[in-house]
Amino acid sequence: METHPQQAQEMDTALPTTPCSVVWSRGHAYVLEGFRARWVGRDDRGRPHAITGAEMQRRGWTLTRTA
Fold first, then answer.
1. What does the alpha-carbon distance between residue 54 and residue 45 come to, in Å, rounded to a whole number?
2. Pairing assessment for the beta strands 22-25 and 38-42 based on DSSP bridges
3. pLDDT on residue 6
4. Among residues 5, 67, 43, 64, which one has the least CA distance to residue 16?
5. By CB neighbour count within 10 A (0-12 exposed, 13-18 middle, 19+ buried), where does 57 fall?
6. Beta bridge partners of residue 49, listed in sequence order
7. For residue 7, what are the CA distances in angstroms to 11, 23, 34, 66?
8. pLDDT mean over 9-32
9. Origin, by domain of life (predicted)?
10. Please, which residues have CB within 8 angstroms of residue 42's CB and are 6 or more apart in sequence?
């Protein structure tokens, strides 16, 4: 798998910590839910999906939507 240079740079940095921050992972937007410190988005079928910051780091993320 080839990693986009910008994506590699952002994955090396820490995830945003401000509530309501948005990041992209695997083609889906995730929003930081501040009071629970988890990332919330939707799966491929439109169902709610929540993951931890550690899982987001493992999956890879970016601040911009990629194709």
1. 23
2. unpaired
3. 53
4. 64
5. middle
6. 41
7. 6, 11, 24, 9
8. 86
9. Bacteria
10. 28, 48, 49
SS3 47: coil
Query: Could you identify the residue written with the tokens 């080839």?
Result: 2
With tokens 């501040």, the residue in question is: 34
CA atoms of 61 and 7, how far apart (whole Å): 7
Backbone angles phi, psi at 12, to 5 degrees: -75, -15
The pTM of the full predicted model, rounded to 2 decimals, is 0.75
> Which amino acid belongs to residue 28?
H
Helices (H) and strands (E) in the chain, counts: 2, 4
Nearest-CA neighbor of 32 among 44, 45, 14, 20?
20
Average pLDDT over residues 59-67: 88
Residue 38: both structure tokens together: 């988890």
